[in-house]
Design goal:
This protein is an alpha+beta fold and about 450 residues long. Strands 5, 10, 11, 12, 13 and 14 form a six-stranded mixed sheet that branches. A hairpin with a 2-residue loop joins strand 7 and strand 8. Helix 1 runs antiparallel to helix 2, helix 2 packs antiparallel against helix 5 and helix 12 packs antiparallel against helix 13. The N terminus is likely disordered.
C-alpha cells in the first residue's frame, strides 16, 4: 500500500534528509503524515499511532455541551498567524455518502447516524489538536421527503455557472468533513465512522455511520505552508525545476483566506428558521494547470491575474504575499472594466470581490479551501460557507468576467481573464450544514 509518492505509511517516515537542515525530522514527519491520510485504513492508522507522537495523547472532548452550536464554528479554535489570519487544520478528509433506496430515511437510520456522530464529541476536543468536523445534507437528500425546505434555507440543486464548465455534480445525500492537525485523530475518527473499529480515542461508538449509509467517494486535502512545493517535486503537471514558492500555502503560489477578505462565521450563519445556527456549504474541486500557470506567466503576470493589474504595477505582492498581512487590498481595485481596457488583463480576486460584498461592505463568503493530490493531480477542494447558495453562485458568476471580455478583445472568455485559463471545475456540490442538534438526518421542517 503506497501513496502517489511511493511512500508506504506502514513502513514509517522516510530517512532524514540532511539537505533540509537539521535532521530533517520536520519534513520526514510531514511526508509520512500526508501519506497516511491519503492512504487511509487500519494500517495507516496503526503506523500513525506507532510513529507520530506515540507519547502525546489526542485531547478528548467533553461531549456536545462543550462544542459550539454551529458545526461550522471553527475560527475560535484555530491557530492564527502574526496578522491574525485563521490557519486551517493541516489534514482534511471528505466522505461523500448516500442512503439506500429513494425514500426518506426511517427512525432506525436516524438513530444509527446519531449514535455514530455523537461519540465524536466525546472522543475528540473541538479544535485542530483534536478534531473539527461537520455533516452537510444535499438538495437530493431533502428531495427524498414530500415536504420542502423552508424559505429561510437557500439550497438549490447545483448547475453549471459558466458556459465553459462541465462539472460532475455531487448529489450524494450527505458530506462528512473531518479536519485535524493530527493524522491519527483524523484516521481513527474515519475508522470508527466506517465501522472498521468500534472505538476512537478510547470512546466506544455504538453504531457506525456506514450501518446506515454508503461512502461513495473519499477525498483528501491539506493546508500547510511549504507542502505545495514539496508535493510539486514529483507531481504530474508541475514544470521542473519546481517553480512553486517554498513559502506558499497553495499550488498557485500565493496566500489566500486573509481575514479582512473573509466573511465572519456569524455573517454566514442562518439567522432564523428551523435551521437557525447552521449554514450552507458549496464544495467544488478544481484541477489546476500548473505547467501553463508557471510556464506562460512571469511573476508580475501571475500577480496581475491572481489579484489585479494594480497589484502588479505597484509591487504590492512580495513573493507568496505574506507581506499583505490580513488584507489583500482588493477592495481598492474593483473597476474591472477600466483595468481590462487599460491593461488587457484582469485579476481573479478583483472580479470575485465585486459580488462578494453586501450593501454595507461586509464580505459574504467564508472560504476554507485546501489543496489536494487526489487522482495524482494538483487540485483544490474549495468549501465555501454562506447564508445562501445564491451568494456563492453570484460570486462564481462574477469570476467569469463577462463584462471585461465585452469591453476589449484583449480579454477573452478565459484568456487574460483572471485564473480561468488555469483552473477546471471537476465537481461541485451544495449542502445544508444544520446546527449540531439537527445533524443526524434532519427532516425538511427541521425536526430531528
Amino acid at each position: 500500500m503506497t501513496d502517489r509518492d511511493g511512500v508506504d505509511p506502514r513502513a514509517g517516515p522516510p530517512d532524514p534528509d540532511p539537505s533540509t537542515g537539521g535532521d530533517g525530522e520536520g519534513l520526514s514527519r510531514r511526508a509520512f503524515a500526508k501519506a497516511a491520510v491519503a492512504a487511509g485504513g487500519a494500517a495507516a492508522l496503526s503506523a500513525c499511532v506507532e510513529r507520530l507522537r506515540p507519547d502525546e495523547p489526542i485531547p478528548d472532548g467533553d461531549g456536545a455541551d462543550a462544542h459550539p452550536t454551529g458545526q461550522h464554528e471553527w475560527n475560535g479554535f484555530l491557530r492564527t498567524d502574526e496578522a491574525g489570519n485563521h490557519q486551517l487544520p493541516r489534514h482534511h478528509t471528505f466522505l461523500y455518502c448516500s442512503l439506500p433506496g429513494d425514500g426518506p430515511p426511517g427512525s432506525d437510520a436516524r438513530s444509527t447516524v446519531a449514535d455514530a456522530l455523537d461519540p465524536l464529541d466525546e472522543a475528540f476536543a473541538w479544535g485542530p489538536e483534536g478534531l473539527l468536523h461537520s455533516v452537510g445534507y444535499s438538495p437530493a437528500y431533502f428531495g427524498r421527503y414530500d415536504g420542502s425546505l423552508p424559505d429561510s434555507v437557500d439550497l438549490p440543486r447545483p448547475e453549471p455557472l459558466a458556459p465553459f464548465e462541465t462539472p460532475t455534480f455531487d448529489e450524494q445525500d450527505l458530506l462528512v468533513h473531518l479536519a485535524s492537525d493530527r493524522p491519527d485523530a483524523l484516521l481513527s475518527a474515519e475508522e470508527a465512522l466506517t465501522g472498521e473499529r468500534g472505538s476512537a480515542n478510547d470512546v466506544e461508538f455504538p453504531d457506525a455511520l456506514t450501518d446506515a449509509v454508503t461512502v461513495e467517494s473519499r477525498r483528501t486535502g491539506f493546508m500547510e505552508v511549504g507542502r505545495p512545493h514539496e508535493e510539486g517535486d514529483d507531481l504530474a503537471g508541475v514544470p521542473q525545476p519546481n517553480p512553486i514558492p517554498e513559502d506558499a500555502p497553495l499550488f498557485m503560489g500565493f496566500v489566500a483566506g486573509l481575514r479582512a477578505n473573509q466573511a465572519t462565521e456569524s455573517y454566514v450563519t442562518l439567522p432564523d428558521g428551523p435551521f437557525a445556527g447552521g449554514t450552507t456549504k458549496a464544495v467544488s474541486n478544481w484541477r489546476q494547470r500548473l505547467n501553463d500557470w508557471y510556464g506562460e506567466q512571469d511573476p508580475d503576470q501571475r500577480v496581475t491575474e491572481m489579484f489585479s493589474p494594480g497589484h502588479a504595477a505597484e509591487g504590492l505582492v512580495e513573493g507568496a504575499g505574506q507581506n499583505l498581512g490580513d488584507d489583500s487590498g482588493v477592495d481598492d481595485v474593483l473597476d474591472v472594466v477600466a483595468d481590462a481596457k487599460e491593461h488587457g488583463r484582469v485579476g481573479h480576486a478583483q472580479k470575485a470581490a465585486r459580488a462578494n460584498r453586501d450593501d454595507e461592505g461586509n464580505v459574504k463568503l467564508l472560504r476554507r479551501h485546501v489543496e489536494s493530490t487526489d487522482d495524482d493531480e494538483a487540485s483544490l477542494h474549495f468549501p465555501a460557507l454562506q447564508r445562501g447558495i445564491s451568494d456563492f453562485e453570484e460570486v462564481r458568476r462574477a469570476m467569469n468576467g463577462t463584462d471585461a471580455a465585452e469591453a476589449t478583445p484583449a480579454v477573452r472568455q478565459r484568456v487574460n481573464n483572471g485564473i480561468l485559463e488555469y483552473i477546471f471545475v471537476r465537481r461541485r456540490g451544495y449542502f445544508l450544514v444544520p446546527p449540531r442538534n439537527l445533524r443526524a438526518l434532519p427532516r425538511p421542517d427541521g425536526s430531528a
